[in-house]
Write a structure and sequence with these properties.
The longest helix is centred in the middle third of the chain and has 38 residues. By secondary structure, the chain is mainly alpha-helical. The protein has six helices and no strands. It is elongated and about 100 Å long.
Length: about 150
């Protein structure tokens, strides 16, 4: 019986504390609401409520879609597979270019041949050099056009 009295005595004290806290908080909130800046901000907020509601609706739909996409394992696997299909050929091409550059560097370091004027004229007839020179010329033309804009 003594325990019951103690519990009953504790409950009203907690309720009294809660109401006392609310009385302390209420004047602060009321004081803030009476400030002109707060009233102006509330007026602007109320005027924008239709737009805010529309935005929240759109954000909710976007969130729901993102949740569906994030939880759809098949879609995630398809996206990853698609990226791999795009990246794999690029990766192979990059590896091919890198190996050609390394091999060309090795050959150039091993060779001690001097390329003279006639050697350069002979190189100018090389189809690969011509292709690279045309590419270089086109690239420089594009850069020049973009600088003019």
């Amino acid at each position: 019986m003594e325990e019951r009295t103690m519990v009953e005595a504790t409950i009203p004290n907690a309720a009294e504390q809660s109401s006392a806290e609310q009385r302390v908080i209420k004047p602060d909130v009321l004081d803030q609401l009476l400030q002109p800046e707060v009233q102006e901000a509330l007026t602007q907020l109320v005027e924008q409520l239709p737009k805010l509601a529309e935005m929240m609706s759109l954000l909710t739909k976007t969130y729901d879609l993102a949740q569906q996409v994030a939880s759809d394992r098949v879609l995630i696997q398809d996206i990853v597979g698609g990226f791999k299909e795009v990246v794999k050929p690029l990766e192979e091409k990059a590896k091919g270019i890198a190996s050609a550059v390394i091999e060309a560097n090795d050959r150039a370091e091993q060779s001690e041949a001097t390329i003279g004027l006639f050697g350069m004229l002979k190189l100018l007839k090389d189809p690969e050099l011509q292709r690279m020179l045309r590419f270089g010329q086109a690239y420089l033309d594009i850069v020049a056009e973009r600088k003019k804009q």
